Amino acid sequence: xxxxxxxxxxxxxxxxxxxxxxxxxxxxxxxxxxxxxxxxxxxxxxxxxxxxxxxxxxxxxxxxxxxxxxxxxxxxxxxxxxxxxxxxxxxxxxxxxxxxxxxxxxxxxxxxxxxxxxxxxxxxxxxxxxxxxxxxxxxxxxxxxxxxxxxxxxxxxxxxxxxxxxxxxxxxxxx
Length: 175
Known about the structure:
Blueprint: E1 5-6, E2 12-17, H1 23-30, E3 35-40, H2 46-72, H3 80-98, H4 105-123, H5 126-130, H6 144-155, H7 160-166
Antiparallel strand pairs: 1-2, 2-3
């Protein structure tokens, strides 16, 4: 856990030790070898300083996990911002394909029907099948096992360049 402290001149300060196994690479990429530091101006409110501390700590932890994953040839974790950026790239690619010629409405109806009836419905709990109004927000659709089942159906629609960016993403991250 990283502590947030005020130093003598009123500024906020936090530090996090960089683990030995990634120090050299961390220094090469980010300029700090032993510790990462967060410094905030004295006029930063405590509430804002704590929020920025959380964001900073998550960023440093993600950097460390990414370096380890790259070294071990494993999937790397995504920050929320990275996941949003990747989703944005996919969205731009998808929309660009159809902006000049969206094609017949029938194709979009068939695509929607495919996902609803052939993909999602197979994953629906029995209670939902019996009474769909029992879960008006479709909370079951967000369950990790449902996402795992749907992901391959969506993946076939991902372009090569976006797929290459995402192939090193950890499958445990719910995108």
